[in-house]
Amino acid sequence: MNYWQLSTSSAIAALLCVGVSQVSFAKTKQEKAAIPLREYYGSTKTVTEWLAQVEAAIVRVTNVKFDRTEDGIDITLETADGKPLTIDASKFRAEGNALIADLPNAVLALPDTQPFQATNPTTDITTISVTQLDATNIRVSVVGNQAPPKTEVTLKAGGLAYSLSSGVNEEEDELVITGAGQTGYSAPNSSTATKTDTPILDIPGSVQIIPRQVLQDQRVTRVGDAIQNVSGVSNLGQYQGYEDLIFLRGFQVSTFQGSFFRDGVRTFTFGSPDLTNLERIEVLKGPASILFGQVEPGGIVNLVTKQPLSNPYYFGQFSAGNFNTYEGAIDLSGPLDEEKTILYRLNASYRTADSFRDFAEKKRFFLSPSLALKLSPNTTLTVDAEYTHDSSTYDTGLVAIGKRPANIPIGRFLNEPFSNFSKEELSVGYVFSHRFSNNWSLRHNFRFQRQNPDRYGPLQSVLDEVTGDLTRTEYWAGGNYENLFTDTNLIGKFSTGPIRHQILVGFERSRTLEKPEFRFSNDYPKINIFNPVYARLRYSKEPEFFRDDTTYTTGIYLQDQIELIPNLKLLLGFRYDIFKQQRSTQFLSDPKEEFEQSDSDVTPRFGIVYQPLDFLSLYGSYSRSFKPSFGASRNADDSKFVPETGEQFEIGVKAQLTPKLIATLAGYYLTKQNVATADPNDPSGLFQIQTGEVTSKGIEFDVLGEIMPGWNIITSTSYIDARITEDNVLPVGNFLDNIPKWTASLWTTYEIQTGSFQGLGAGLGLYYVDDRSGDLDNTFQLPSYFRTDASLFYRRNNWKVQLNVRNLFNVEYYTGASFGNRLEVTPGAPFSVLATVSVEF
């Protein structure tokens, strides 16, 4: 089956799934009318006729009901002919002691022609009102006694439910009310793709979310394992035993090369980011330079952290497993004053574990306090910090012989028992936000980060594949790294006639300082991979090579989210970047070499979303990326390298299968240009020129959410064809290293909801990774694998006990070859088990 046949078949299958789901879902809710484009535009030929058609699209609210339930209050809006209302979550907010939801393109047409009002429905609610705000907007307002009501208030319209209370009881500093069901596996909105809180159905691109509940259910401790739930991800395991090595759509996403973000702020870190204080992980696929500057074209990973809560919350857990694994964690939050204007949150964890790898062990301590200050009803300041102390075995993995990984035990260690990676990292920052009015707000981010990684242990150099003798080199790397980042953006909402806009204007400034030191020239005793004898000879950490680098980034970006009519939306934007580098290199016995370079570029993004049905979105987009080359890189004539660029075309379909279940089908064509390749005119082979190009094209399918009460799912599958399309040395058509054509994942849990066994549940995980080339020369392959995970849990009141099994059938597999290196093949973990006890109140 060729690529386009596969794409067509997958698209048909996805649409059939959407159809089946909608037929099933219609049995439990009123069917919603389709809204084809011609309903709004019809056959108009003049502006007057067009405006008349737009006015005809206004929805009439004919009845308002409210009901007391066991959980709180339900407010139901009924419309003429069952037409759906446009629910814009960004219009939901808390203002003073009221919860407010503004609904566009709607008019009140109640039987008595009067606004709806109910008084004192509960002890903490004084009034519920539904009024006409202006000619085309209505307002739902729920007013509390002295503060926003604590009673759960749910707005229902057209079979969908939206929680008005989540904007107060949750921790969003913008106080945005999003769709009901934000807990669990449901994730209807994303802030990563647009830097605004936007429904996923309205985003012309692929963004996938891993909610906190998935992280808890799977008990993962690494970002790489978490985002393996997402299509288009290649999880290579840990580079040299300490850092996640991840690829998106065929291109590396590095924790230290600027493709990871924390609450939308670029973060650089040696090692794996900690999951203890994460609320969710958002994965934005494709070039993202429009909002995030210099990044690889495959996409970015945004780590969204937990925020201080206005109500007391206390959580603690303890885990123990095989390989002497022990972990404890706490999560504490609540107000520090009666007015709830000062809120705190404290997350902390400690983990220690041995490994299936000989001599390998890990220890980590993590601490993250945060404080939210409500300076006024419209102004908040949140200050936070993170401290990480890491110590782990420096482990370069196994080797390849011939066309596959060497036939030696996966636990065999080819470094030295003293090999070690350690790091202390401190990160502090704040977020200041101010709302000028209902339509205009300002947000300012600041973050400072410092770390001092230390890597010590011999590195593999050359393998004699006949004898098994592995030549090694003394290696040490240390030094200090600092990153200073600030980002300010202004968000405004306005209309030009019947067209609605949400505009984002931003300014970004950052500075990085890197002063690493290295030792890598001296030989170290060989080791035999078939019969290892460890030399155990420590060596000096005296550096012999130095770098001193300073880089500056200045970025200005503009984005407009345009709603032409309720079911036709545009996304337009561009960014201008200036990137300056001041770098120096020096060998101990040589004079210092200094380099300076300045690059700039404009990166645009365009997208369109059409919603023929209220639960279905069709989208297309174009985007570009920009990433400067290392400033010390030069052509043979000493000219500077230009930035690498990426370009992507993407189309897709998104379906809200039920209010808590969403599916995305995407197809893309992605090209990376200005890739460095060998200079054919250089006989020494030492110089490169930028004539290379690589291309990745594929299709992806993701489903996330709740199928029915108690039954959750996150599943994905993807096909990637990633190849070299231009090069001076490597054969054109070679596959990119470590990128499987096919991947698939399924994680699902079910918890019994009633009866004697209420709270008992189980989970099942299935992960398939196709075989893939281990290097760009395509000289060896990593075999395919199919891994099974499982869980069993029981929840009683505020206690939960949980058992997680990873690699249930003890399959032997390999996750990747670091940077296409035959001498650094990473094996996957065998059967492992982890038991967890947790309590929250």
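The record above closes out task 2.4. Task 2.5 opens with a second protein, given below.
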Amino acid sequence: MDNMIKILPAIALRGTTVLPDMIIHFDISRAKSVKAVEEAMVTDQMVFLITQKDYNVEEPGLLDLYKIGTIAKVKQVVKLPKNILRILVEGIERAEILSFTQDLDYLEAEVARFEQVEEIPISANANEAMLRGMREIFKQYCAGNQNISKELINQLMDIEDVEKLVDQIAINVPLEFDQRQKLLDAVHISDRYEILGILLSNEIEVMQIRQDLQMKIKEHIDKNQREYILREQLKVIREELGEDTFASDADTFMERAQKLKAKKEIKDKITEEVKRFKNIGNNSSESTVMRGYIETLLDLPWDKTSKDNKDLKQAKDILEEEHYGLEKVKERILEFLAVRTLTKKGTSPILCLVGPPGTGKTSIGRSIAHALNKEYVRISLGGVRDEAEIRGHRRTYVGAMPGRIINGLKQAKVKNPLMVLDEVDKVSSDYKGDTSSALLEVLDGEQNNKFCDHYIELPVDLSEVLFLATANDLQTIPRPLLDRMEIIEVSSYTENEKLHIAKEHLIPKQIEANGLNDKLLQIKDDALSHIINGYTKEAGVRNLERKIGEICRKAAREILEDNKKSVQITVKNLEKYLGRERFSVQLANEQDEIGIVRGLAWTSVGGDTLQIEVNLMPGKGEFLLTGQLGDVMKESAQAGISYIRSIADNYDIEKEFFQKHDIHIHIPEGAVPKDGPSAGITMATAMLSAITKTPVRADVAMTGEITLRGRVLPIGGLKEKLLAAKTAGIKKVLVPKKNEPDVKEIDKEITDGLEIVFVEAMAEVLAEALVK
């Protein structure tokens, strides 16, 4: 009896069952299993293989394992990367697990062998009957399964012993591990025979059903419908199971249509479409198109609205908390809220925020939605060229779908969201239609209560949608579209505004994003000012945020690598984190010079100062313009020289001077394109200074368009230009008289310290600029 009980290293298998006489290789990675193999190789190479009931259990107990396992001999062990062993084993005999211990660093099992199990003797006739029966079942199985080789079939058919035949078939037929476990649990040959017979018969029946299904599918498919093969398979399977979801879908649609919050004519139209869908049936190619159309109609928020916030103070607090500056935008939104609260109705305004990149035009949209308690939808129009993107495609087209406006309403799930039309100045047109023309109906408060999308073909009410368009340049927006929107200019931020935005919003946001806190990182105000002026040159704050993010990342690394308790950023150590300064302000010249005048320009990144240089050379009266100047700027220079020639007598300029001298105007930087009429008076002053050899005051800058008669016309971008003048250390700025109302609207923070002189004619400009 002693040799019937064995104590062996054990391996708990997952998803695999090993039978006696079976040779198989498998991978093991659990530490206890690897140790068990090593223990077996030290002794007699014998291990006990037992299968887990649940694949996911990492540390199996006795109850997690099947009772019967296999004593096996380890034939080969191969070490793979990542502590994985691939072992080749041969099943020797069945054994029952009695107990096992987990105290060691491997599983050790006490097992009982089955050699003394007394079998009921099988007569010769019974043996022959069982052999024939099993061979017949196996032959049927092989007829349906082409994966078993003929050599193996012949080899198995030659076996004369029932037990050996049953065991060999069980080993060579592809079975699931739990099916193999049933065969392993069957100790008696009669039980094993019965279980294997049932398993093979079930497999034969499954294969037969599969063949029948394939035959039925072939009957349904003709040569012109081969692309529908997958749909037909699904149909036959549903017929076999007695399921048909088509009718139930139509009923669901009808039920949703009845519950829909919409006008009667819209509900009637949807009901009519559902009835058509039901009558068409599932076979029609049109059913898929109609299903998509009905689902789109049911998903639209026809009369479903969200409750707007009526608390004016709360809305103001939210806007102030989330955005610094942008006073005009906030004021207009609060006005809308006040009117809506008093009247309980009224169409929503259609606003267009225009300004340089990075000034918070898009992000203020989300804040407005938060303040008014509206759903937020953003539609990016940059690069949209197809009119169907706005109005949708007609349903006659393959793959037709609604436009972006309707999809935005579906996304919002209410009819009164805030819809941001981002980059409205960057829409374009091609042979498919004009996108900006399609927006005319959307953004017209008198028409958009019955907006018609080509796909929907029903009037959709957009009058309660609060549209907020954003743009960088008004010049590219067509006039009719511009006329439908209320323009609010979002100008460049001053240094003080950038400082506030950085302290209140950007620094806390980046500190949190980089896993820091106020104690770990501190940025001094003077260092922040240095970043704004020396490392960024922009109207908005995008690059400023990137620079703050760069400091935060380097500080985080420093805290971890050098075990620092905190990092403090000052002007002295700023270069360590951001490198050398990238930008420097071109300050006003120290001395008054001949032929050099400081002009003011508006750029996409804010205001800038231009130093216009004029040289005179003996020649044939040629007029040279360099510095990548646009056509308008060249024409301004031509107007300037014509004006100077007209007043030559006033400055004692010889009549033949312009035929004997070449005039060269250059505006650095040469690689930067420049255009616009606002440098007209600057170029005229520089030319007259060079011709009369009269120095121009170094502390004066100017901007304005010049006419042939020397009148000074108004220009735009004044806030940015004055900001650039102040930064450059200019004391006096000459501005067109007609821009006086614009100057009054500019914050005192910008105008303080600047002497602004309003001029109407070139004579006034020359009197202020030329050194007397």
